[in-house]
Specification:
about 80 residues; mainly alpha; 4 helices; flat
């Protein structure tokens, strides 16, 4: 990964943590880096995404499935006391 001063292993861990749902600040705290660094890595790597993922064939249908998507219906209520 060109122009990145941080070890690749650290950036890889940050991207894995972010893809698993860990927040920016929490990722930074765990890895001992600023949250802005994590944002900058994401921006830098997203610019190179076309190098990692080949384009989908035009003649094929593509389906994207979401994982761990939550929908809130109604309102959040406090826990019931017994």
């Amino acid at each position: 990964m060109a122009k990145l001063k941080t070890p690749v292993a650290t950036i890889t861990l940050a991207m894995k943590a972010r893809s698993e749902g860990l927040g920016l600040r929490a990722t930074g705290r765990i890895l001992g880096v600023a949250a802005n660094s994590v944002v900058n890595w994401e921006k830098h790597l997203s610019a190179a995404i076309s190098n990692w993922s080949p384009p989908a064939p035009a003649e094929k249908e593509i389906t994207i499935e979401g994982d761990e998507v939550y929908t809130r219906i109604g309102e959040n209520l406090p826990p019931r006391r017994k």
